[in-house]
Amino acid sequence: MTTNPRRIGLIGLGEVGQVLANDLHRAGGVELCAWDRLFTLEGSEPRRAARSLTFVRAASSMAEAVSSSSLVISAVTAGDCLAAAGEAAPALTRGALYLDLNSVSPRTKTEAARTIEAAGGCYVEAAVMSPIAPKRIASPMWLGGPHARAFLPLAQSLGFAGAKVYSDAIGAASAAKMCRSVIIKGMEALLAESLLTARRHGVEDAVLASLQDLFPVGDWRSLARYMISRSLQHGRRRAEEMREAVKTVAEAGFEPWMSRGSVERQQWAAEHAEALSQQALTDMLDHMLARMPAPARPTEAARP
Q: Which is it for the CA torsion 13, 75, 161, 57, positive or negative?
């Protein structure tokens, strides 16, 4: 079997996969073939995307998407990273590049790399170090592994303008990404928990004003709404990523107390996605609070 130098196999057609498909198509000169396990579910977002992106050929299986491709890009959720590598490996053409964009722990990336390399593929670790939306395919991306330097010119020619080699070893780029996620996803969880509580007590304005003195980031109300909305919209995916952060912290020999709590809050936020319909921060918080049990009132005996 020969490899088509212009063919790219895309695993995962969710938010990131759709961005990459559109931007790779605009770069020109490539043939895109995608596979998503949700293609089999009528009405799923990946299936709808496959129908609307007419320049992407929707494969009927992982093997169809991967075989004969010179480059395979894995953009699945964190929990599916290893399963995707295991399913893709048997169909890889020897020497094909496998770019793993998934946000997982260093050990998970190492295991995925071992699977791909054993099948004759060339594994390239990637850590996307910002939200994908603003710069899209040109987002800052740290590459790792023994094939990263050879892949970089091809990556840049395809539009990965923010790509740079971080390490020749697998795992270092992902360690940096996961440690960043502990902060970013943790801040999302903390803001949701703090401001929901503050709103219930009627002190949210005072809390937001006090944050400006400590962290002068500008409009804390807008920032808080944005960060909480990310959890509402992508909470399930973020919870999966934070489970990998839990692994990363544990792999470093620490007890992942904060990361473990963020998993629970992100998962909880996903269950309140309807609150995204509210534009103002307080309206969004009220929408969430209205769907939560009212706090128990203290009994007369318990009152001071």
A: negative
